[in-house]
Design a protein that fits this description.
Layout: E1 2-5, E2 10-15, E3 25-33, E4 37-42, E5 48-55, E6 61-69, E7 76-80, E8 84-91, H1 95-100, E9 111-112, H2 114-121, H3 126-129, H4 134-149, H5 156-170, H6 182-191, H7 196-214, H8 220-227, H9 232-243
Antiparallel strand pairs: 1-4, 2-3, 3-8, 4-7, 5-6, 5-8, 6-9
Length: 269
């Protein structure tokens, strides 16, 4: 789940995984809305455990609820209000399905609501739901991520699929590492929730977002060529599908994306 702020400015931070859990946890993150509007969620192919709560003026959290956010291959917009607090545990590609014991395909473009999420997480969710401050919520997410991956024994096909996903990510969304066999498609659906070809498009879109952020003055034709698209039209179609905006309207996606790959220094535990 990638959060990009549309018409709802807010404060976004990423935090490190617990020591030893970074093999399966990409990051923990927090976001607090500062005014009413919409939050743009872009496709990223990951699974998140999400805490949603209210952050009172005195810094206390209340009205906490949980959900599991499945891997997305399209953008979405979520209404937020001032004081809405979101905290998430984002798994690395393919690991969410393994750690949660859920087939990713069943979660594709869906959210598992509070009651079902609590049932799935069991007692491990208690510290998160009872966290009184943002710092405590981050610490609870870090511990939850650690617990969910402890003792996981990968099956050979899972290990192979994870290796292929990592190669696909390293290849910046090209299809050189994609497994197009019937078993490869089945394994990709089980762990990523989408075929390798679709995941490759999502990863290429993310790469294009980074390139656009690093070089906002480049032409779209140049961006399309460097990012591996056939042409500018192809680039714009993927931005509309996966990002909910076009690269010509870069201002529609203010910079929470720039936090990806960086770890916020506050709230470190």
């Amino acid at each position: 789940m990638s959060l990009l702020l549309s018409s709802a400015p807010g404060h976004y931070q990423e935090h490190p995984a617990a020591p030893g859990a970074d093999a399966w946890v990409e990051a923990c993150w927090t976001y607090t809305a500062t005014r009413a509007g919409e939050q743009l969620v872009t496709a990223d192919g990951r699974i998140d455990v999400l805490l949603r709560a209210r952050l009172d003026p005195d810094g206390l959290l209340s009205r906490a609820s949980l959900c599991l956010v499945g891997p997305a291959d399209r953008s979405a917009r979520i209404p937020v209000a001032p004081g809405d607090f979101l905290a998430g545990l984002r798994f690395r590609l393919g690991w969410g399905a393994i750690c949660l014991g859920l087939p990713a395909a069943s979660l594709r473009n869906t959210w598992v609501a509070d009651a079902s999420a609590r049932e799935r997480l069991g007692a491990k969710a208690a510290p998160l739901l009872t966290a009184l401050h943002a710092e405590a919520a981050v610490a609870a997410l870090q511990r939850l991520g650690e617990q969910l991956g402890e003792g996981v024994a990968l099956q050979p096909w899972q290990r192979d699929a994870l290796t292929r996903m990592a190669a696909l990510q390293a290849d910046l969304g090209t299809l050189h590492s994609a497994d197009r066999s019937r078993s490869g498609r089945r394994h990709a659906l089980a762990l990523a929730g989408m075929p390798f070809a679709t995941l490759a498009r999502v990863l290429r879109f993310q790469h294009a977002m980074r390139l656009l952020d690093e070089g906002p003055d480049q032409s779209l034709a140049e961006l399309a060529c460097v990012a591996g698209y056939a042409d500018q039209s192809h680039l714009c179609r993927d931005f509309r599908r996966f990002g909910g905006y076009t690269p010509r309207r870069r201002e529609a996606a203010p910079p929470t994306w720039r936090h990806r790959g960086r770890v916020a220094v506050s709230f470190k535990t």
